Amino acid sequence: MEAIAVGRELGSRSGGHARVALFGHDVRVLADVLAGTGTEVLLADDPALAEYTPDGYGQAARAVVESANPRLILVAHTSQGYDLAPALAGAMDLPLVTNCLALRFDGERLIATRRLLNEKVQAEVEIASSRPIVATVRPGSVKPAGPSAGGTVSVMPVRIDPSKARTRFLSIERPQVQDIDIAGADIIVSAGRGIQKKENLPLIEEFARALGGVVGASRPLTDMDWLPKTRQVGQSGKTVRPKLYVACGISGAMQHVAGMKDASLIVAINTDPSAPIFEVAHVGIVADVLKLLPATLKELKS
Amino acid sequence: MPLNIVVCLKQIPNPDLQFQIAPDGKDIKRDALNYKLNGADEYALEEAVRLKEKSGGRVVALTAGPKRTEQMLREALAKGADEVIRIAFDEAAAYDVGKVSRLLAAAIRTVPHDLVLTGVQSDDLVNSATGGLVAGLLGLPHASVVTRVEVKGNGLEVACELEGGLQRLYSIALPAVLTIQFGANTPRYAPLPAIMKAARQPIKELSPTALGFASWDAVPLPYTFAVRELSPPAAKGHAEMITGTVDEQAKKLAQFLRDKGFGRR
Ligand SMILES: Cc1cc2nc3c(=O)[nH]c(=O)nc-3n(C[C@H](O)[C@H](O)[C@H](O)COP(=O)(O)OP(=O)(O)OC[C@H]3O[C@@H](n4cnc5c(N)ncnc54)[C@H](O)[C@@H]3O)c2cc1C
Ligand SMILES: Nc1ncnc2c1ncn2[C@@H]1O[C@H](COP(=O)(O)O)[C@@H](O)[C@H]1O
Fold first, then answer.
1. How many domains does chain A have?
2. Whether residues A10 and A57 fall in one domain
3. Do the beta carbons of residue A53 and residue A168 sit within 8 Å?
4. What is the pLDDT of residue A51?
5. Predicted pLDDT at A180
6. Are residues A152 and A210 part of one domain?
7. Is the CB of A112 within 6 Å of ligand 1?
8. Structural domain for A263, as ranges
9. Which residues make Cβ contacts (< 8 Å) with residue B256, sequence separation at least 6?
10. Which of A16, A113, A171, B36 is deepest in the core (most CB within 10 A)?
């Protein structure tokens, strides 16, 4: 929906229009929902598209690009999107720019705004080409497309050749939960790599207890098995909306922020004043978390 | 089944640092940076070496970068790579992922490859694009954000991470390209004798002509690319900061939390 919003905007500004390509099987209902944004939806329906595979969706995407010959192909920068988009660009020899916060045209040039180096540097890059440009749009950077009249659904015949599929879908694996569900907690104190050592986890636990909350974590900590995977906050973990979120030694990478930005009150503690977590936090403290938490605990108890 | 594996490694400036923009606005200031192996690539390298140890074969570590990357390549040798190749592409910043991917693809064509591994993203440019681009350019199947790889028959079975903790399992035919996710394994430390040995091992260097280009500027691209400007990000918002000594900060934080109704008596 966010990519549609970007497409609608760029289309109308440049005197063109946006069309939406939808791949799947038996997804007419979804096609109608997308048409509710006032766009023409090209629906490619095939049993081989029931589950995403890089090959099947790649074939479908190539067929759409060949027949529609667009100036710009927008894809969401999600794990599925950055699986599909670069391979499409490679296979069709197209220009590519990924993970864009904003896109605009300056004449023939596409100008993309991106973030580099842990969000600490912003970059504007330009691409010009006579060929369609592939771009991925970072989730959360624009408002999703709202409803608008005039949308249609047209069925686009694509034939996916399953014998050409070199990737085959097997199954979806769900995480087994036998832990507390941090998504239900009102207060979460999360630890990041900034706590340095596993031995410092009890400090985080004590602080969480003092506030009546639970312990969450950034991904590196669950990757290292300091905490179970169920405690991971972020894009590939849990999305949480507590009343209070305390980020202890967490830099604020976009994948982490995606899971906690909607907390009512965010307090961040980090030694680096330029850490991007201070952009989303309401209250920030530049301090060594290993010194600040014991001192704060003492204050809370007094 | 022995596997010829190529693993793509990138050396990046340590992202925990603070960065300044160069006067021309086209790059960061690079004189005082320290560099390291990109985070996800540590897992890609480890996965390559483990697959080789299990199935036999060879691991070639490949980078496109300036002379300083030799140190990273020696580290890869010490951790189990059999051969290392540096594409002598000296552009320090290399902001155009399309160009870098075309160089990597050209180099991969020159070595036997049943499997190509990259990291899921480079932590400096965060494109999450190189693996997929290389796969498309080479016409190979691919899978992204891989957390598990198993050799099954003539192919692989892989688990790919989706949002929210879900995994999607595929079977994939070889040769193939995979992008490896953080946490896919536990990277090893290089043993000291291996580090000593790696210091003496050769590093193969590829010039533009070795890859069939007249120069690095003559790599055919279907587009033109330029960095317009780097800038400090315009913050969407910024936290209210609690300042002072640690004790003062602690006092203010405790008071603040109490005022907001948090913290038991
Ligand atoms: C596909 C994909 C999915 C991902 N999904 C997730 C996800 O769901 N959740 C997630 O969290 N990450 C996820 N990540 C990883 C993410 O990109 C970051 O690597 C991760 O969030 C960084 O964790 P961190 O902030 O703890 O570590 P770092 O980035 O290493 O940050 C540590 C911070 O601690 C600070 N610090 C150091 N010492 C101290 C001290 N003594 N006191 C206070 N501060 C200190 C440092 O200044 C730094 O800012 C994902 C990545 C990818 C590619
Ligand atoms: N210059 C390079 N040399 C070798 N590998 C690279 C280079 N740039 C990117 N890669 C690989 O591509 C992965 C993804 O990078 P990116 O597409 O920039 O996010 C990295 O983790 C590396 O494995």
1. 2
2. yes
3. yes
4. 92
5. 78
6. no
7. no
8. 182-301
9. A283, B242
10. A113
Would you call B247 helix, strand, or coil by DSSP? helix
Helix or strand holding residue A100 (H, E) = strand A96-100
Chain A: nearest CA to B20, how far in angstroms? Answer: 8
Question: How many whole angstroms separate alpha carbon A174 and alpha carbon A49?
Answer: 21
CATH (domain of A34) = 3.40.50.620
Side chain identity at A274, as an amino acid letter? S
CB-side exposure of A130: number of CA atoms within 13 Å?
0
CA distance B40 to B172: 21
Residue A166 lies in a domain: no
Residue B31 belongs to a domain with what CATH number?
A: 3.40.50.620
Complete edge-to-edge strand list for the sheet that includes strand A244-248: A214-217, A187-191, A244-248, A265-270, A283-286, B240-241
Q: Locate all alpha helices (DSSP H) within B38-158, ordered by sequence.
A: 39-55, 70-78, 97-109, 130-138
- From chain A, the residues in CB contact with B38 under 8 A are none
Whether A191 and A270 share a structural domain? yes
DSSP run (H or E) holding A223 = helix A219-223
Q: Are residues A122 and A74 in the same domain?
A: yes
Q: From edge to edge, which strands make up the β-sheet containing A40-45?
A: A19-24, A40-45, A152-155
Examine the domain organization and report whether A245 and A132 are in the same domain.
Answer: no
The partner residue sitting opposite B264, judged by closest CB among A121, A166, A210, is: A210
Query: What distance in Å separates the CA atoms of residue A85 and residue A12, rounded to the nearest whole number?
Result: 23
Q: Which of A246, A276, A139 is nearest to A182 (CA)?
A: A246
Q: Nearest CA of chain B to the CA of A283: how many Å?
A: 5
CA separation for the pair B198, B82 (Å, rounded):
10
Residue A110, beta-bridge partner list = A105, A127
Domain termination residue (choose one: A98, A125, A159): A159
pLDDT per residue as tens digits for the range B144-187 = 999 999 999 899 999 999 887 789 999 999 999 999 999 899 99
* Residue B149 three-state SS: strand
Same domain, A138 and A10: yes
Question: Which residues does chain A have within 8 Å of residue B228's beta carbon, measured at their own beta carbons?
Answer: 111, 124-126
**Residue of B8, B17, B99, B126 to mutate when probing chain A, most A C-beta within 10 A:** B126
Choose among A90, A267, A291: nearest Cβ to B136.
Answer: A90
Q: How confident is the model at residue A177 (pLDDT cuts 50, 70, 90)?
A: low
d(CA A154, CA A43): 6
Ligand 1 atom with the smallest distance to the CA of A290 is 41
Residue A231 belongs to domain with CATH number: 3.40.50.1220
Would you say B145 and B181 are in contact if contact means Cβ atoms under 8 Å apart? Answer: yes
A207 and A130 in a common domain: no
A99/B83 Cα distance (integer angstroms): 33
Domains in chain B: how many in total?
1
User: Are B41 and B76 within 8 A, CB to CB?
Assistant: no
At B99-129, the pLDDT tens digits run: 999 999 999 999 999 999 999 999 999 999 9
